[in-house]
Specification:
The protein is an alpha+beta fold. It has a domain of about 110 residues: Succinate dehydrogenase/fumarate reductase flavoprotein, catalytic domain (Flavocytochrome C3, Chain A, domain 1). The strands form seven sheets. It has a six-stranded antiparallel sheet. It has a five-stranded parallel sheet with strand order 8-2-1-12-21. α2 packs across α3. The chain is globular.
Length: about 525
C-alpha cells in the first residue's frame, strides 16, 4: 500500500517537504489554493542566511546561532535554532545543486549584511531570491511528479482537519474549480504561510494566505505559541490592496533612514545605534520609526535614502527593486529618497511545534511561517527562507519516522462543512486587531480590542468567521498576558523585559474558552 502524506501549502516549506518525502519513496498530495508559482514564498526578496564565510569575516554557524537567539530575545528553542544554523550551509549547497543562480564573485557566493547580524551571511539572487528559489524547487518537484510520487493539487482548499481525541486521521479539502469535497486519509503537514488574511491592506504578504487553516487547527485544540509577536517591517509603501516591501537589502547595501528634524534630515538610527545603525533588528527599527514620527520635534514622514547606493550595486544586486519602485511610485530611488512606513510583514507566532516539527495533535506537523519554532520574539531578515526550507525538510523527516496507516472514522465525515468567510467580518476583525496590536501597545488598547472582538464574535453567524475571531482573540489575550516588552511585543505600560516571561506563550482553545500559559520552547510532543 502507498505511504502518503498530505501537504497543505506549496511554497518553500511545502516543496522542500515534498522533495524530502519523495526521495525515500513516500507519496505526497501537494495541496494549495494557488499553484506554487503564486505562493507567498515568491515574494521574498532579500536573501537566505547561512554562514558560508565567503566574505572573509570569520563567520560560523555558532555566530549565526548567537545572532538568531539574541534577535529572538532568547525565547526560541536553542536546540532547534542550533539545528537550523548548523544545517544552513547544507541548504545552500542543495539549492546550488538545483541550479539556483546566487550572486557570485570569483567562484564564491556573495553574502550581504542583513539586520541584527554583524557578519555578512545573507546569500541572494539579485532582489528576487524567493522567486528564484521557488523556480528551482518547482522544477525539482516536477521530477517526482513525473515518477508518480507527487500529486499536485492546486486550486484545492482545506475545509477541515479530521481530529478525534488528539489524533489526526486526515483532512477534508475542496476542489474550487469543480466545487467537490475530497476526504484524504493520512498525516498532514501544514505549510500554509502566515496569517496575512487577518490584516488585508496592512501586510506585505498575499492575503491568499487567509489564515483559515490556522483557525481550523486552533478550533480543534491544536496549541499555538507566541501569537502576540507580529513583525512590522520598517520599510514598506502602500499600494492598492496591500503594502509593498522595500527589502532590507536596500539598507544592507547602504540605504539610510531619516526624518526631518529642525528642517534638516536626522539619521536617527545612525545616531542612536552607532554599531549596526540602520541594520538593527526589525522590531527595533520599526519602534524607533514610531517614536520619531510621533515626536513633536520631528515631521511625521520617514524617508529611506537610497541615492547613496553605487550604480554597480543597483545594476547587479538591486535592479528588480529599483524597477518595482519606479513602477509603483513613479520615482527613481537611485535619484531621490522615498517615503516609507512600517507594515505587518511576518508572524513569529503560529502552530506550536517541538524541535521535530510535531504539533500537539498526533500526525499533524507544521513548517514555515505557519509554525512557531525558530524565531522567538523577532525574526532576523534572511532567516525566513532558511526556516521554511529547513522546517519543510524536518517536518517531512518526522512524518516519515512516525508514519502510521490511518483511516478516517465514519463519524468524522459527518462534520458540518464550513462556508466561506464574509468580507465584511474579515475587515471588522482586521480593524480590531490592527488597532490593538500596534507597534506600541498598552492594557487599555488591548482590552478595548478584546471587548470589540468578543462583541464581533457574539454577533457573528458564520462558522469559519467565528473560528477566525477566536484565533484573533487568542492573539489579543496573548499580548495581554505578556506583561513585559520583548522583541516585537512592546508595551508602554510594561517597558522592561522580565526573566519570568523568558518563555513562549501558549494559546489553546477548549470548548469556547481560550487559555494562555507560558513554557519553554521545543518541549517534545510524544
Amino acid at each position: 500500500m502507498e505511504k502518503t502524506i498530505n501537504i497543505i501549502g506549496s511554497g518553500i516549506a511545502g516543496l522542500n517537504a515534498a522533495i524530502t518525502l519523495s526521495e525515500v519513496g513516500f507519496h505526497t498530495n501537494l495541496i494549495s489554493l494557488q499553484p506554487s508559482e503564486r505562493a507567498q514564498s515568491v515574494l521574498a526578496e532579500g536573501g537566505i542566511n547561512a554562514s558560508l564565510n565567503t566574505m572573509g569575516e570569520d563567520d560560523s554557524p555558532l555566530f549565526h546561532f548567537n545572532d538568531t537567539m539574541k534577535g529572538g530575545c532568547f525565547i526560541a528553542s536553542s536546540e532547534a535554532v542550533k539545528n537550523l544554523t548548523d544545517n544552513a550551509p547544507k541548504i545552500i549547497e542543495k539549492y546550488v545543486s538545483y541550479g539556483v543562480p546566487f550572486n557570485m564573485e570569483n567562484g564564491h557566493i556573495i553574502e550581504r549584511n542583513f539586520g541584527g547580524q554583524k557578519k555578512k551571511r545573507t546569500a541572494f539572487a539579485r532582489s528576487s531570491t524567493g522567486k528564484i528559489l521557488m523556480t528551482a524547487l518547482i522544477d525539482e518537484v516536477r521530477k517526482y511528479e513525473a515518477l508518480g510520487l507527487v500529486n499536485r493539487m492546486p486550486h484545492h482548499e482545506l475545509k477541515d482537519l479530521l481530529i478525534e481525541n488528539g489524533i489526526l486521521y486526515g483532512c477534508l479539502i475542496k476542489d474550487t474549480y469543480k466545487d467537490e469535497l475530497i476526504y484524504l486519509n493520512g498525516p498532514v503537514i501544514l505549510a500554509t504561510g502566515g496569517m496575512n488574511g487577518f490584516f488585508p491592506e496592512e501586510t506585505t504578504g498575499t492575503t491568499q494566505n487567509d489564515g483559515n487553516a490556522q483557525a481550523i487547527a486552533f478550533s480543534k485544540g491544536v496549541e499555538f505559541a507566541n501569537l502576540e509577536f507580529l513583525q512590522y517591517h520598517p520599510t514598506t509603501i502602500r499600494i492598492t490592496g496591500k503594502r509593498m516591501l522595500i527589502t532590507e537589502a536596500a539598507r544592507g547595501e547602504g540605504g539610510r533612514l531619516y526624518v526631518i528634524k529642525d528642517g534638516k534630515p536626522w539619521y536617527f538610527m545612525e545616531e542612536k545605534y552607532p554599531e549596526l545603525k540602520n541594520l538593527m533588528p526589525r522590531d527595533v527599527v520599526s519602534r524607533e520609526e514610531y517614536f520619531v514620527s510621533t515626536s513633536p520635534a520631528c515631521e511625521h514622514n520617514i524617508y529611506l535614502d537610497m541615492t547613496v547606493i553605487p550604480k554597480a550595486t543597483w545594476k547587479n544586486k538591486l535592479s528588480d527593486l529599483r524597477e518595482e519602485i519606479k513602477s509603483y511610485l513613479k520615482k527613481d530611488p537611485a535619484k531621490e529618497p522615498i517615503k516609507i512606513e512600517p507594515g505587518i510583514h511576518f508572524f513569529m507566532g503560529g502552530i506550536n511545534t517541538d524541535n521535530l516539527h510535531r504539533s500537539s495533535v498526533k500526525n499533524l506537523y507544521a513548517a514555515g511561517e505557519c509554525a512557531c519554532i525558530y524565531h522567538g520574539a523577532n525574526r532576523l531578515g534572511g532567516n525566513s527562507l532558511l526556516g521554511a526550507s529547513y522546517g519543510g525538510i524536518k517536518a517531512a523527516e518526522s512524518a516519515i519516522k512516525y508514519f502510521e496507516e490511518l483511516e478516517i472514522p465514519n463519524e468524522l465525515k459527518n462534520n458540518k462543512i464550513l462556508a466561506d468567510s464574509k468580507m465584511s467580518t474579515v475587515v471588522k476583525l482586521k480593524d480590531i486587531l490592527y488597532n490593538g496590536l500596534t507597534i506600541v501597545r498598552n492594557e487599555d488598547g488591548l482590552n478595548d480590542a478584546l471587548n470589540k472582538a468578543i462583541d464581533l464574535l457574539n454577533n457573528c453567524d458564520n462558522e469559519i468567521d467565528k473560528l477566525r475571531i477566536y484565533l484573533g482573540i487568542a492573539m489579543i489575550k496573548s499580548a495581554l498576558s505578556r506583561k513585559e516588552s520583548r522583541g516585537a511585543h512592546y508595551r508602554s505600560d510594561y517597558p522592561e523585559s522580565l526573566d519570568e516571561y523568558k518563555l513562549q506563550s501558549i494559546a489553546k482553545y477548549d470548548d469556547g474558552k481560550i487559555n494562555i500559559s507560558f513554557r519553554m520552547a521545543g518541549e517534545p510532543y510524544d
